[in-house]
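Structure first, sequence second, as always.
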């Protein structure tokens, strides 16, 4: 298989993976739910202390916290920073819906495909501090020591999610060519 044919196959698989959640209502509902939950988690992780203090006082602060932290990300890094957070949420929603479908169809043996999403989700986060979920785990100081405040790690996480989706393809079809089809 030539490099061009492999690239074309990868892009076809990526397109199939991205479009899969919109083939059924349940997939779309799951995608929207996971995307919103991931966005909220990523936004809350931009300032964990602020989030915990405000939400600890009561859930009536939830809307204020999400809007305030979204504005903070925008004011800190502009549209690019906010775009990274939104792109992470969208790709995470797609990846989780596809992984759940693979798990439902193939069973526990498909858990190996889920390993590609975990580092991307852990490294994802706000564009203003770059800590993401790793900040909740206590690794924010290590990320601050990285060049460009961990921006390469965030882009690497996005590329890892895209690689996972392109490699897996449509969760109801096998993306691996057998000997007879080569």
């Amino acid at each position: 298989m030539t490099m061009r044919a492999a690239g074309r196959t990868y892009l076809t698989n990526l397109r199939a993976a991205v479009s899969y959640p919109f083939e059924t209502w349940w997939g779309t509902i799951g995608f929207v739910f996971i995307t919103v939950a991931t966005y909220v988690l990523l936004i809350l992780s931009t300032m964990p202390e602020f989030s915990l203090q405000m939400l600890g006082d009561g859930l009536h602060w939830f809307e204020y916290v999400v809007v305030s932290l979204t504005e903070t990300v925008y004011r800190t890094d502009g549209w690019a920073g906010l775009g990274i957070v939104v792109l992470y949420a969208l790709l995470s929603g797609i990846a989780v819906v596809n992984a759940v479908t693979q798990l439902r169809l193939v069973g526990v043996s498909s858990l190996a495909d889920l390993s590609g999403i975990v580092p991307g989700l852990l490294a994802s986060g706000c564009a203003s501090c770059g800590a993401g979920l790793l900040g909740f785990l206590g690794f924010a100081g290590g990320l601050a020591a990285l060049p460009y405040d961990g921006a390469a790690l965030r882009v690497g996480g996005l590329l890892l999610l895209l690689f996972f989706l392109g490699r897996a393809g449509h969760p109801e079809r096998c993306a691996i060519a057998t000997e007879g089809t080569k």
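Margin note: The longest helix spans residues 62-106.
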